[in-house]
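Late entry, evening session. Most of the bench is empty. Finally got around to the prediction I had been postponing all week. Sequence below, unchanged from the version circulated by S.P.
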Amino acid sequence: MMFQSNNPGKLWPVLAALVLLLLSAGAQAARISVQTDRSPVAVDETFQLIFTVDGEPDGEPDFSVLDKDFEVLGSSQSRNISIVNGKTSRTTRYLVRVLPRRSGELVVHPVSFGKDVSPLLKIPVRDAGAAAKNGQASAADKDVFMEVSLDNPKPWVQQQVILTVRIFSRIQWREASLSDPRFRGGEVLMQKLGEDRSYQKQRDGKTWQVIERRYALFPQKSGELQMEPLRLNLRVPDGSKRQRSPFGGFNDPFFDDFFASRSYRTKVVRSKALKLEVQPVPPSFSGSHWLVAGNVQLQESWSGDTSALKTGEPVTLTLSIVADGVTLGQLPELDLPNVQGLRIYPDEPSNQEQVTEQGLRSTSTRKFAIIPTHPGEYELPAVEIPWWNSRTGREEYARLPSRKLKVTGAVVKPPAPVEPVKATGSLASKPAGTDSRTSPPSLKTASGEAGMKGVNRWLLLGNLLLLILWLLTLVLWLRARKQSHARPPVAAEDVSRPKVDMGSAWAELHAAVQSRDAAATRRALLTLAQGLWPDRPPRSLEALAERVDAAAAEELRALSRQLYAGDQASWNGDVIESGMKALATRRDRGARGDEASALKPLYPEHA
């Protein structure tokens, strides 16, 4: 800033005013103080840190320095402006609700308000049971506690573990909330089992109100996993009442209690920490799909008699797998092998998940339409699924025996007999006495003989043409039959299924991966699978994982766990997309090689 004046003497008052303005600004720098709403505090109790700012601070406060010793649960602020004798003063209060992370002497480190800083404050924090031992505990400190337990602390990987949480109480509370289980050391899928239960229980000669909550846990990694203590936040009475009546007490317990307002405080109840020692997949397990459960059953039903099937007439086979202690994402996909002479069309599986006393029970049902193409006897191979019994610690097999099908030729009705064509020459032999007014008899006879010759000539040519066409049809039928025996029958799905637009499918997959939309990624992957395997496309992410490389398969299973178990599992869409593109490239190269050599099938059946 530059001042110009013809009279230097007038410049001094202006400079003096500027100096006074700077000095007053320095004198009005914000003053910050900090205190607690009460002291001492317990490690299981929340309290407030009160930051009082007189004046205008240099910037907004940064409370992140409190995270080391406290858990910040929320904050609010209020501002007060007063004018006394023409002088304006501003006071701002910041209320920060915190929970101590441990007992001892904790330090509230200086909080920055821009260039302004609050002073350091030390707070004594006692243990959770210290107040009870000293006889200073309120009713809530003595009458609320929590218990947690596991039905199996040493499960196999992906085995169901039941976590039971019980809250014991002998007082009334308000605004209670329970934290979800958290684990360190590996990923754990979790699902709440049903609704909370409420009942009473006798313990130590007292009647307790109990609230019970159960979770099904599925550890996804072997090794030691640590469950952090659960935390119950609730507001409990602090034992004091404030009179609300403007007329004072009534000397009556009922009216005095009605017109009194009870004060509440926030209390935190913590459970003990738990540990899981997860065992890996046993080396003795022989199956390709790891399935650990309490029980596994296979069931079948047929829509017709398998010993009296007709060629071309469909019969429906319904297969179901029922497993205790597993999620839907853990179930293997039900499928049937190809059988020469039978066309098998699988339907989309129908899945159901229900809660029992033993945890989760998952059921997957799939229907197969089977159409015999030739008469004879056929055998559907036995269906066998290996699984690991979590109760006995042994490998077992869920089996359905092989099934024989007897097929007879379809009943074909014989064609109706053809009436012989009456010769038109019968007009010449018409008996005497008939009407002959149309033409003279001599002309009739001549024209009738000529017509007979013309009809016989054209009839002979027509029969010859029909014979040639019949022989040509017979040759083509024999050739088609020979080719049908040389390769498996083409599924009717290939004709009825609309052609997949692979360009749009790849674009949908890329967009879904970029937006991390799990459901859209699954839809795009299954659409691509229909284009890559038009004869027998995989119907689930688990089935698709068996056809890609190991890295993409692992991410596909993680995506499946998130979709079916409601878990925020970490899955890498870029790995899935690159794996699918690499697979498509390999298949294109193999297809070009097959076209050149014509020795290998275009799409290997077990690709």
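Two things to note before I forget:
Residues 139-278 form a domain with the Immunoglobulin-like fold (CATH 2.60.40).
The chain is about 25% helix and 35% strand.
Will write this up properly tomorrow.
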